[in-house]
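Folding follows sequence. Below is one example:
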Amino acid sequence: MSIRVAIRHKTRYQYDRPVNMAPHILRLRPAPHSRTPILGYSLRILPEKHFINWQQDPFGNYLARLVFPEKTTHFDFEVEVIADMTVINPFDFFLEEYAKDYPFEYDAQLTKELAPYCERVESGPLLLAWLKEVDHTPRSTQDFLVDINQQVWKALQYNIRMEPGVQTCEETLALGRGSCRDSAWLLVQILRHLGFAARFVSGYLVQLTADLKSLDGPSGPEADFTDLHAWAEVYVPGAGWLGLDPTSGLFAGENHIPLACTPDPVSAAPVTGATEACGVTFSFDNSVVRIHEDPRVTKPYRDDQWAAIYALGRAVDAKLLEYDVRLTMGGEPTFVSIDDMESAQWNTAAFGDHKLDRARALWKRLGKHFAPNGLKFSGQGKWYPGEPLPRWALGIFWRGDGVPLWKNPELLADEGKPYGHTSATPAPHQRHGGRLHGSALRPARPACRL
């Protein structure tokens, strides 16, 4: 089951006069580690007279560096991201043995490599007081991270802030509210004080309306929605970077598409740059459009799709009739012993004391009834994993027009009858009675018709 969406992000800066623009940096391309599969990406820039160079910052994020050689009255960019919204289990990871339980310490090499993500730049009294209330009881690292993320979510009221920048942890805790970027930065600092490496994430959040209304809780958005969003990522040995969204109290899933992940929020801003002093009008639009949906239990085929499927089926049936193609279905009978139902040979074992004898008896009876002039064949059958040899298969073959395939059954050896042959017996005789007895035999098949 899959839903593919197109995320469209349009932004326009309209200036009151022609102005010179300094180089601008856009951080609006999905990061290399995005768990949500990205099927397509495009970026359109206006004015058309510009130079673009794709770069990667020290943290591996994609940067579009734009240079504008002439004055302009506007700056527009339009991003389109095609994403596969297949559900991601955010807890589908394993942890290194030493990191399975909290508290733990990174090894020496990781401590060195993660240094920028462990810097504690804030240590105000409100933050330290909050940290004193943290329950440090040893438990699984996964449970500890879930608890911390939800504690931040419960402690803050979400609000939309149009002002630039990120609040300090002290401001956010004093107000008891903040935007997504404020709560994300607070969580980053909390995690660092608790001994984790953490980073700030800027990205797209996609929320799709559910097919059915929830019976016992909120049903989510009434319409499909997307916008720029911020959350945190924590590094756990074995799992790598894990996304935590304190705005919702949840781990990041397929609806979180990271664009830039950095130790400090200032390095993750979607757009940075400068222009001459001027009056400016700013506008933007974020939208998400479903471009493909697989049928699913909660949203099956539409009536017109069912009609097309039925029409195709009828067309196939007509062709089968036209060319006289006949389909039959075979099967393998399951033998249930009337007097030995619990025996391993009739339940789990490949071979047993009576299994081959009963199979041969059924084989002969079926041959007499369906194909008295047919050919009974004993040979290798399926070879199951873990078994040393293929199983035996007993087959019966005959012609539909009645022409005999075999007229003298006495010339076929009876495998249940000893003939006294040994390894010294000439090859022609071995064809009739010198078979190797495998350790894995199965009951006879029903009559097979060619």
